[in-house]
Amino acid sequence: MQKMVIQGGVALRGEVAVSGSKNASLPCLMASILTDEPVILRNVPRLRDIRTTLELLERLGVESRWIGPHEIELHAATMRSHEAPYELVKTMRASFFVLGPLIARLGRARVSTPGGCAIGARPVNLHISGIRALGARVQLRHGYVEAHAERLVGARLWLDNPSVGATENIMMAAVRARGATVIENAAREPEIQDLARMLNAMGARVSGAGTHVIHIEGVERLHGVEHCVIPDRIEAGSFMIAAAITGGDVTVSNAPAGHLDAVTTKLREAGIVVEPAGEGLRVHRNGPLRPVELRTLPYPGFPTDLQAQMTALLTQAEGTSVITETIFENRFMHALELVRMGADIVMKGPTAIVRGPARLSGAPVMATDLRASMGLILAGLVAENTTELDRIYHLDRGYESLDEKLRKLGARIERSGGGAAAA
Ligand code: UD1
């Protein structure tokens, strides 16, 4: 099993380019099911989750090939299967997002339910009630969601909470439904807007993506498309925090500044300088790090996917920070590992009280999920001596060439041990 070995103490300097967004790429890849014409996606990161999605699509009958370092061509000329098996859905929950496109294209879908997850229960009830509202007959049998519909029919529906995945799933189902669909209390994440852009370029009629109310006028068929995926705001935010925690000076090029307002605001509150630099952001620090209070919220609030990284940063602030997680109930596993490295963190329900500045010392630590892993890497960058992060397959799911990119900024980080690296 591979590990990441980090020698802390280097202030990161230089420029790093952000890759395409993982969370935008996944639904865009799945949207290729909606047409029998070729689809070309650009700016797709080479990640384990992308490979898993391509494997799933291939089983369903979608042919794909890389036509450039980050360009992929997909063709769902004829579908072979309507089933997303448990062995794939359990390794990547987002596999569940094929439910909508499958039922839109084939009138039926059999998709394994994802089950539990390290960061919380993560149910899929909103996905299912959305597909039902569009007229599908849905049964849960043997751990699979089985859905049927001759043709979906547009409907007005309201989400209990603005789930990103449910919004995407329902959008992909509704684009080929008969009549109009309105999704109220929809998620507003930039990844939703990117998917809508792609669907509209395929001939769909989606409006309001990026607001709480999305309107979809169903169409008979969708055609092929070339679409460029947006840059990864979570990767960009992670590098911004890496610059901040090490007291370095990093230009994060290709960073989607407009998608990072909440992150920029909190970093500035913490005493970090964030300024526009060409097509990106320059991040550096002049004085001490100040404590902040923050709550994770749906977009445009502070993203839960940067909470672990921010927790690591605030262990270094001069004073007490308060971080509340409101999206996932169990997303503080990294806090226990940070405490093992010397952090002073007390948990009170969904809130972490972080007292700094803590002198972190390197330790063997274990990753529990993708973003927690990044939080521990950041802690390792400022810890004394050596930090060894185990289970780095989590990182390879979502950060493209992370160690290479950090090394270019001066970090002392290496992979050790056997096993294959990411895609
Ligand atoms: C997506 C992102 C993930 C991010 C999350 C929240 C992808 C591939 N993943 O995940 O990185 O952390 O958004 O920004 O884009 N919920 C329900 N019922 C449902 C669906 C969700 O109760 O049917 C709840 C979840 O338990 C959670 C909240 O809604 O508490 C938000 O989850 P959701 O937005 O659906 O996250 P994902 O789409 O899975």
Describe the protein.
With 423 residues, the chain is α/β, with parallel strands linked by helices. It has two domains: 3-19 and 231-416, Alpha-beta prism (UDP-n-acetylglucosamine1-carboxyvinyl-transferase, Chain); 22-228, Enolpyruvate transferase domain (UDP-n-acetylglucosamine1-carboxyvinyl-transferase, Chain, Alpha-beta prism). The chain is built from 14 helices and 24 strands. The protein has helices spanning 22-30, 48-60, 86-89, 99-106, 125-133, 164-174, 190-201, 233-246, 261-269, 307-314, 333-340, 370-382, 393-398, 402-408; strands at 3-7, 13-17, 39-42, 63-68, 71-75, 83-84, 108-112, 137-141, 144-148, 156-158, 180-184, 205-207, 213-217, 225-228, 249-253, 272-277, 280-285, 293-295, 319-324, 344-348, 351-356, 364-366, 386-390, 412-416. The protein has a four-stranded mixed beta sheet with strand order 22-23-1-24. Strand 8 (137-141) and strand 9 (144-148) form a beta hairpin. The protein starts with a strand and ends in a 7-residue tail after the last strand. The mean pLDDT is 95.
- Helicity, as a percent range: 25-40%
Please state the second-level CATH architecture of the largest domain: Alpha-beta prism
The distinct bound ligands, ions and cofactors come out as:
uridine-diphosphate-N-acetylglucosamine
Physical arrangement of strands within the biggest beta sheet = 22-23-1-24
* Main sheet overview: 4 strands, mixed
CATH top level assignment of the largest domain: Alpha Beta
Strand content: 25-35%
How many DSSP-defined strands? 24
Could you say which overall geometry the principal axes of the C-alpha atoms support?
elongated
Mean pLDDT: 95
Q: Calculate the terminal CA-CA distance, rounded to whole Å.
A: 16 Å
Work out the radius of gyration: 21 Å
Say what the CATH topology of the largest domain is.
UDP-n-acetylglucosamine1-carboxyvinyl-transferase, Chain
| Category from helices, strands and their pairing | alpha/beta
CATH superfamily of the largest domain, called what? Enolpyruvate transferase domain
